[in-house]
């Protein structure tokens, strides 16, 4: 009972529920947004070593819901090598999570999310070629971030959005990438004991909220113009980054 009270029966958990709902809408609409929004919020509420494992568990479970349809629509020749490089680099990132000071890591997560939100709002995008070597580098950087902060998204999202594909193809690429790395991402924290009873309780309690909002976001994809979504996503990312950076 004490573990349950410490994990979910408190005010910080209510904040986590709100953030999870917003992240679910983002993920369902665009194919990304779960980890990049929840990592700074959960790290602020519970500390990176307790918050990041919850992000990893929820990312894995929500990917399973979206993955079947996305496999046929995604560019597998580009996405799978990036995902493989990320998987191989994740254990190194997990060492950073174990060794880094919690406050420093939380603020680093906040700065990364805040910077990513500003770049996402700006018109800048990478418009160069996407050869295999560059794909592997982007994947490796994403894997390092995934292991250390729970977020693989920023470099991959900007890289994927640089292509000429339509929104549906971008969304499928994101879903496939996050699905590929989802299983591998929980192995290091599982082996090191970071996925403990409070992490499992928080994940189980937040998962219904996430899945419901992901489904709602998927429906909104067909009705809300991308320009409106960009404003919503930017506001959410700036708020989450600011909380972690200044909290």
From TrEMBL:
It is found in: Cell membrane. It holds the Pfam family TauE. The keyword Membrane applies. The chain crosses the membrane at residues 7-30, 79-98, 104-124, 172-191, 228-246. GO terms for cellular component: plasma membrane. Keywords: Cell membrane, Membrane, Transmembrane, Transmembrane helix, Transport. Belongs to the 4-toluene sulfonate uptake permease (TSUP) (TC 2.A.102) family. This is Probable membrane transporter protein.
């Amino acid at each position: 009972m004490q573990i349950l009270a410490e994990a979910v029966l408190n005010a910080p958990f209510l904040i986590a529920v709100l953030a999870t709902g917003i992240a679910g809408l983002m993920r369902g609409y665009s194919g990304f947004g779960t980890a990049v929004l929840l990592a700074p919020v959960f790290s602020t509420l519970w500390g990176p070593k307790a918050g990041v494992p919850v992000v990893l568990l929820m990312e894995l479970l929500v990917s399973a819901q979206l993955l079947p349809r996305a496999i046929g629509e995604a560019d597998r020749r580009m996405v799978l090598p990036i995902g493989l490089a990320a998987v191989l680099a994740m254990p190194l990132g997990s060492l950073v999570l174990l060794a880094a000071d919690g406050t420093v890591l939380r603020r680093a997560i906040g700065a990364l999310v805040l910077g990513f939100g500003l770049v996402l709002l700006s018109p800048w995008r990478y418009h160069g070629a996407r050869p295999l070597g560059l794909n592997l580098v982007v994947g490796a950087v994403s894997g390092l971030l995934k292991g250390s902060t729970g977020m693989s998204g920023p470099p991959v999202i900007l890289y994927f959005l640089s292509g000429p594909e339509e929104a549906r193809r971008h969304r499928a690429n994101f879903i496939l990438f996050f699905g590929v790395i989802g299983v591998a991402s929980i192995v290091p924290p599982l082996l090191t004991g970071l996925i403990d009873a409070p992490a499992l309780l928080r994940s189980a309690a937040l998962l219904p909220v996430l899945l419901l909002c992901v489904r709602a976001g998927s429906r909104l994809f067909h009705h809300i113009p991308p320009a409106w979504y960009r404003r919503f996503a930017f506001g959410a990312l700036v708020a989450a980054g600011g909380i972690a950076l200044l909290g």
